[in-house]
Design goal:
By secondary structure, the protein is an alpha+beta fold. It is built from one helix and two strands, in the order αββ.
């Protein structure tokens, strides 16, 4: 009896799954026409063109050159500090 109930349940689930329409794949849908978007504040140079390899439309934006700040280079001083380990007395050399 339990086997029949399991078989009937599985058959019902299978029939329910087959009654739903198959999911539509993205490849089957038509691609909508793309629209241009214009953004930016009008600074720098913006150019469009075509990529010769793929044929895609590409956008190239060159920012305005920023003024460089001139400041003097800082001087670098190296002052090595050599210390002996604390608490140890230096032994005199042999023969002195």
């Amino acid at each position: 009896m339990a086997r029949r109930a399991v078989a009937a349940g599985l058959t019902g689930v299978l029939a329910l799954c087959l009654s739903f329409p198959a999911p539509v794949r993205a490849q089957d849908q038509p691609v909508p026409e793309r629209q241009d978007r214009v953004m930016g504040a009008g600074s720098g140079a913006v150019t469009t063109g075509r990529d010769p390899v793929t044929g895609d439309t590409v956008l190239k934006a060159t920012p305005q050159e920023q003024p460089r700040e001139q400041y003097p280079a800082p001087s670098i001083t190296v002052q090595p500090e050599i210390t002996l380990p604390a608490g140890r007395a230096k032994k005199p050399a042999a023969g002195q």
